[in-house]
Amino acid sequence: TSTDLTIAGLDIDLLNGGVVYNPNPADGLAFINNDISISETSNHGIRIEGVGALNAVIANNQFEQLGQPVANQSNFPQGVLLSDGQNVVISDNEFTAQDPSGSNSAIEGFAVYVPQGPGDVGPTSNLIISDNTISRWESGVVISEQQNDSISDISINGNQVSDSTSANTANLNTADMWLL
Hints:
Helices cover about 0% and strands about 55% of the residues. By secondary structure, it is mostly beta strands.
């Protein structure tokens, strides 16, 4: 666990399958101003999970994925994976994707993925996903609730999604989601 951890200003190369993983960051994670290169073997650029108030900020980063067009659908990398926790801001990031072969197709994966399913301790709440720029990822923001009432109080606002197969996808109890 960590308290008031800042990861900032780094060039992070995850093209060979590495990940940035911060389980139970306890309080005060700031992941800001980083350049993250990921591939379909990376799984995610950063994964955050924990119980309770994480008070995490993921902002002003550049996530670039080198991957395969959606038609191949063998892996689903994510730029940001949040799989439990409360009080998280994902804002002002740039997510780009490209096919190394030069195809102009959307690349498989989710720029921001917030799942809640069996095995997750949850709840996941008080999330702000705003003002991100997302280009050529299969999906921009994906929220997936597989347990009743485990994701709530979400604001998704001001994200610019282009050249993707779907901008925002939610599988939620609609009473739990607010789009502002």
